[in-house]
Every structure is written in structure tokens, then in C-alpha cells.
Amino acid sequence: MVLFDIDGTLLDTGGAGRQAFIRGLARVMGARDELAYVSFAGNTDRKVLDQVMAARGQRLEEEEIRRIFGEVAKELRVLLRENPARAVAGAGSFLARLAGAGVALGLVTGNIRECAYLKLGSVGFDRFFRFGGFGDEHAERAEIGRAALAAAAAAGIEGAEGGICLVGDTPFDVAAGVALGIPVIGVAAGKYGACELLAAGAGVVVADFSDAGRLLDWMEATLG
Ligand SMILES: [Mg+2]
């Protein structure tokens, strides 16, 4: 079983994710906030909201949070229609190769579920993923990872026999894998470089998925 982060790992929305969040938030809260104080890389949508509310000294009811997430997804749909996401090099063929080999593919993403599938759909990757953990349920990435494993178990997907690994582009992804005892492949295609990902505990780091052979060899050797 291989669990994938989305942004900076499989694709790049060119800032559409951040823009959708800014617009969706403004629709519910009134005033527009450019969120200059929020880093989205490796963050989770629920944690972004926590940071926004902490900066304002406000608290949101669960119903308002759901409403904001709904508006963010609406905005993202429009933005991606205008400017589709760009896939990380080799990601599509790597996913196809794993799926073809019978590997179960899941998501561990800070995105809310709807935004996750909008982004994946924008580059045609949505069909590869049937389960995952998402940012609308949990603020902490390790919790999102646990939710993904629970979703896999609920769907009757066994990861143990072939091992499990996680693929992500930030030290936050790596930390989540470490917390769960899952080896991590770092993809230095986003904001963080190989040194930072290795220092966080990544087992291997690649620039993108162009060299699928090297990744498959690493998986074979590490996961058995
Ligand atoms: Mg990411």
C-alpha cells in the first residue's frame, strides 16, 4: 500500500489552493484576508483555519467550518477550470505502474476531501485513489494518516503483506510517517529540498517520479 500527499507531491495548483481558501473564507467571514501569515506547504485545511482564527482571536463553530470548506471547494472548482493543476513529472505513469502491479493507493492529505479530488481530477489522477485521510476531519497529519489506514481497513484493503509507505514533499509528511512507523519517500518537487526531507527522516528522496525504476527498487528492498 502506498499513501500519497497531493500538493507539491503529485501536482502543483500554481497557488489555486491558497486562492480558493482566501476566497472561500471571505465568502463566509466577510472581510478578505490574504493569509500572508499562513504557510500552506504541508499544512492541513483545518489547521489553516485554526491559525486564521488564532490570529483573529476568534472561534468558529463546526457549522461555520463546514460552510467555509464548502465555499473553498466551490472556488477551487472554478479556479481549476480556468487554470488546471500541473502534474509532477512522471507522477501519472508512476501511479499507473503501481496500480497495474496491484498496489493499493491511498491519500494522506491536508486537503478537505472534496478539494483533494478536485485537484486530482484536474490532472486525471482521481481514478487511482479509492480511500484516504483528509484535512476536513483532522488538523494533525499523523491523525490524517491514521484515518487513511482505518479507511483502508474498512474497505478491506490489506497493506501488511506488501508493506506500507508514504510519499510526501514536506518535513510534515515525513514526520507523520515517522509517527506512524511508516517509511517515507520524499519528493523534493515542492518547497523543501532533499537535505531537509532526509533530516526529517525520509528513507529516500527524489526530485520527481521520472526515475520510477529507482523508486520501485527502493520499495522492493525496503517493503519486501
Ligand atoms: Mg504537500
Topology:
Elements: E1 2-4, E2 11-12, H1 16-29, H2 45-56, H3 62-82, E3 86-87, H4 91-100, E4 105-108, H5 113-122, E5 131-133, H6 141-154, E6 165-168, H7 171-180, E7 184-187, H8 194-200, E8 204-206, H9 212-223
Parallel strand pairs: 1-4, 1-6, 4-5, 6-7, 7-8
Antiparallel strand pairs: 2-3
Magnesium ion (MG) is lined by residues 5, 7-9, 42, 168-170, 190.
Backbone structural class: alpha/beta
The CATH fourth-level homologous superfamily of the largest domain:
HAD superfamily/HAD-like
Number of strands: 8
Ligands: magnesium ion
Compute the separation of the termini in Å.
12 Å
In CATH terms, what is the fold-level topology of the largest domain?
A: Rossmann fold
Structural shape: globular
Number of domains: 2
- Output the CATH class name of the largest domain: Alpha Beta
Largest sheet composition: 6 strands, parallel
Spatially, the strands of the biggest sheet line up as 5-4-1-6-7-8
Task: List the total number of helices.
Answer: 9
Task: List low-pLDDT spans.
Answer: none
Overall pLDDT metric: 93
CATH architecture of the largest domain: 3-Layer(aba) Sandwich
